[in-house]
Amino acid sequence: MTAEEDLVTYERKGRIGYITLNRPDKLNAFNDDCVLALKDRLWEFDQDEEAWVGILNGRGRAFSSGADVRQRQLRNRDDLIKQGGPSGRNATHHPIMFEGHVNWKPIIAAVHGYVFGMAVGISLRCDYVIAAADTIFEITETRRGLYAGQYWSIMQFRGAGTFADEVFLTGRRFSAEEALAHGVINEVAGEGGHIPAAEGLAEKILKNPPLSVRAVVRARRWHLQQHERNHGLFYERARLHMTEDFRESALAFAEKRPPKPYVGR
């Protein structure tokens, strides 16, 4: 395996493909290489003719703490301008992780621990979301001074309604049980039981003809993509990463201190 392949691994057991975030010492935070590695492993699953259902999960104490602040959000101003924002060279790859797939196989997100920031968007773009009972979600973009509208749109698509309004405006954390109650996710498993629960669901899916399953997946993803595009999701995001407030929030996080008062510019 190359270093990039180590960051996100892929293996198949029977008809189930396991895509695993593998940076546990950093709570599976996404740096540039992790984003590209995830794209590659998802494509590998899509192209694996023997794999019919995928399970996306994270190794260690968390599914993912979101973007790697030090590597992605503390780029200097010139880099932010040159690369088009914190996503850098991945701007065309994120956040629509499944765009470009041709086989439309269902992917179950089996999450636990922390699901923060861009990890929320990645998990909710999966076709089914199972969270362990200890899972905590947070839209970190609001507190970080970044655009969070793309994830708000996904929650609206999933039927989260006014709950999405609250957690996006406040940036507060919310539990797996809250997420389930408001339609953000599909299922809550016992603590540590998220992967067995995902495997149980996968076995049920595998009892159906694969092409009919894939037709449903294709329809769902097409409608989600149209929903996001209809909201003009990338317009404001292109501006907020250049603000003083964003820079201060990212620095405060990296320096482990409270942010200075925000100035609105």
UniProtKB/TrEMBL annotation:
Family indicated by similarity: Belongs to the enoyl-CoA hydratase/isomerase family.
InterPro entries in UniProt: ClpP/crotonase-like_dom_sf, Enoyl-CoA_hydra/iso
One Pfam match: ECH_1
Gene Ontology MF terms in the entry: catalytic activity
Domain of life: Bacteria
Membrane-spanning segments: none
Protein name: Enoyl-CoA hydratase
Upper classification of the organism: Bacteria, Pseudomonadati, Pseudomonadota, Alphaproteobacteria, Rhodobacterales
